[in-house]
């Protein structure tokens, strides 16, 4: 009997011992992780001791700033109270230095620091590692390869295509306004800019503003704007293994699939066209190739060129950047003109004297609307399409005022805060187009709606041209007024959006 009892208790003792050992190992690992986090927090506290900021919670950081829905207002308060830059704690072990001084901007953008991996990697499942996310030599090679796609000889004929897309949108507005003078414009403008980029950069024909696939793509991009930004700021969403199990992770995956289906269709169709007899030779003989031609021929003529994965990453990147940032810019410009009718009318008179009914807007016209251009720039100052970008310091930096940061520190270049910094722009909330008069002086890095330095927006001239075409043709057909009951609430996402849409009253001009 005693032997049988012993034989039963020994395995139990063994299991109990293993559980105790596992518990001790787990506790040791937990204590080690806690020590590492404490050590990292101490390192960060030391690094930012020269930069004051509002009080923060030891674990939640400055989370209260994000939850109020008034994050940008809080940011503007920082520019008034803390000169040049201030730290923002996302949580207890992650802090970013928010920069909003032109000298600081110039210094950082003049370096070759990489994009901050911690935040930008969350965009990779959506747009892959194309021009936006790449760093180092690979980024330089892709940038050099794609720069010819934005040669002015390529951009010239795009003006007609842009105008066609805008007119389609305006015709649709006239139909809708027969029922109501009120309109939420952001989605309409997004469909128009997507239509434009499809025609200009991807040689895609047809009207995409009424296409169900295009509407699904626009909604997917809207969702991803929110989901990526939400993930960056949630300490519990940092690890992929946990995030993809959450409801937000599932939504992210579904939205990525919808976005990829759209770009895959574009690539597949253009590849099929290039297989047609004579089409490939015709494209090769072009003096200048469009964006997708460059990508496809780099692959077709050189097996060591772009892989299919790299090809789709660049298409996904430019499909997003080429329409969403421009849609944000145009929508906020229209809202700004709606709230400043005297400037709106002066722009309209300038455009009428130049274009008449606007039926034949050309490349040459775009440089002949100085006041409208000044208003566009001032609106972009107030509402920059990309509110911020991030960098991770690859080496220590000492700023002009003597304060410094170590290698590996994260910085956020806040263009929104820069543009609203009263030390840079007197009375920054006042809409004043004269700030951009030809003889007006300003710091070289005081106005950065398209970033700056070597990593500035490759498509900025394309975007500005589209903004001018859209604003000119819209003002010729409609008078804009704000909806006093639905004032837009700017909210930072990957692009600057409105929390409640951008609602305007439109009146058809005779």
Care to describe what's here?
Strand 5 (397-398) and strand 6 (404-405) form a beta hairpin. This protein has 20 helices and 11 strands. The strands form 4 sheets. The chain has a 4-stranded mixed beta sheet. The chain has a 3-stranded antiparallel beta sheet with strand order 3-11-8. With 510 residues, it is of the alpha+beta class. It has one domain: Cytochrome p450 (Orthogonal Bundle). Keywords: Endoplasmic reticulum, Heme, Iron, Membrane, Metal-binding, Monooxygenase, Oxidoreductase, Transmembrane, Transmembrane helix. Pfam families: p450. One of its GO terms (cellular component) is endoplasmic reticulum membrane.
Write the layout of secondary structure elements.
Layout: H1 2-47, H2 63-67, H3 71-81, E1 85-91, E2 94-99, H4 102-109, H5 117-120, H6 124-127, H7 136-146, H8 152-155, H9 158-177, E3 182-184, H10 186-202, H11 212-232, H12 240-243, H13 247-275, H14 279-284, H15 291-301, H16 308-338, H17 341-355, H18 370-382, E4 388-392, E5 397-398, E6 404-405, E7 410-414, H19 415-419, H20 460-477, E8 478-482, E9 490-492, E10 496-498, E11 503-508
Helix pairs in contact: 9-10, 9-20, 10-16, 11-13, 13-16, 15-16, 16-18, 16-20
Give a quick rundown of the structure:
The chain is α+β, with helices and mostly antiparallel strands and 510 residues long. The chain has 20 helices and 11 strands. It has one domain: Orthogonal Bundle (Cytochrome p450).
């Amino acid at each position: 009997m005693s032997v049988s009892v012993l034989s039963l208790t020994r395995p139990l003792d063994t299991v109990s011992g293993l559980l105790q050992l596992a518990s001790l190992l787990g506790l040791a690992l937990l204590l080690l992780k806690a020590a590492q986090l404490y050590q990292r927090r101490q390192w960060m506290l030391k690094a930012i001791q020269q930069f004051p900021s509002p009080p923060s919670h030891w674990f939640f950081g400055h989370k209260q700033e994000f939850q109020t829905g008034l994050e940008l207002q809080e940011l503007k308060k920082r520019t008034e109270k803390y000169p040049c830059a201030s730290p923002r704690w996302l949580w207890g072990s992650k802090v970013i230095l928010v920069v909003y001084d032109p000298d600081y901007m110039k210094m950082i953008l003049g370096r070759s620091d990489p994009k901050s991996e911690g935040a930008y990697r969350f965009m990779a499942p959506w747009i892959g590692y194309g021009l936006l996310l790449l760093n180092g030599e690979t980024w330089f090679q892709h940038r050099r390869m794609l720069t010819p796609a934005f040669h002015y000889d390529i951009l010239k004929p795009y003006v007609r295509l842009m105008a066609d897309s805008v007119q389609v949108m305006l015709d649709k507005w006239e139909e809708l306004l027969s029922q109501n003078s009120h309109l939420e414009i952001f989605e309409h403008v997004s469909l128009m800019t997507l239509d434009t980029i499809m025609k200009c950069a991807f040689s895609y024909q047809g009207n995409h503003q009424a296409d169900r696939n295009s509407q699904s793509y626009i909604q997917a991009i809207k969702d991803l704007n929110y989901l990526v930004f939400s993930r960056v700021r949630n300490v519990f969403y940092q690890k992929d293994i946990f995030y993809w199990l959450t409801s937000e992770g599932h939504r992210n995956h579904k939205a990525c699939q919808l976005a990829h289906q759209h770009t895959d269709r574009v690539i597949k169709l253009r590849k099929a066209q290039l297989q047609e007899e004579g089409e490939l030779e015709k494209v090769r003989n072009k003096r200048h190739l469009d964006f997708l031609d460059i990508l496809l021929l780099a692959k077709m003529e050189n097996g060591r060129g772009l892989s299919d994965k790299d090809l789709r990453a660049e298409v996904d990147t430019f499909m997003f950047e080429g329409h969403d940032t421009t849609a944000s810019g145009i929508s906020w410009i229209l809202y700004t003109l709606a709230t400043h009718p005297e400037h709106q009318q002066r722009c309209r008179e300038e455009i009428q004297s130049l274009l008449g009914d606007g039926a034949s807007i050309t490349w040459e016209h775009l440089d002949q609307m100085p006041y409208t251009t000044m208003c566009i720039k001032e609106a972009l100052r107030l509402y920059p399409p990309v509110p911020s970008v991030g960098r991770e310091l690859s080496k220590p930096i000492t700023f002009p005022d003597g304060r410094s940061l170590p290698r590996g520190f994260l910085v956020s270049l806040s263009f929104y805060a820069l543009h609203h910094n009263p030390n840079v722009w007197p009375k920054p909330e006042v809409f004043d187009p004269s700030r951009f008069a030809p003889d007006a002086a300003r710091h070289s890095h005081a106005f950065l709606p398209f970033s700056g330095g070597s990593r500035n927006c490759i498509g900025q001239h394309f975007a500005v041209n589209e903004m001018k075409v859209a604003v000119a043709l819209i003002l010729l057909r409609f008078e804009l007024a704000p909806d006093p009951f639905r004032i837009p609430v700017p909210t930072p996402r990957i692009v600057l959006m409105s929390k409640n849409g951008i609602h305007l009253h439109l009146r058809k001009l005779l």
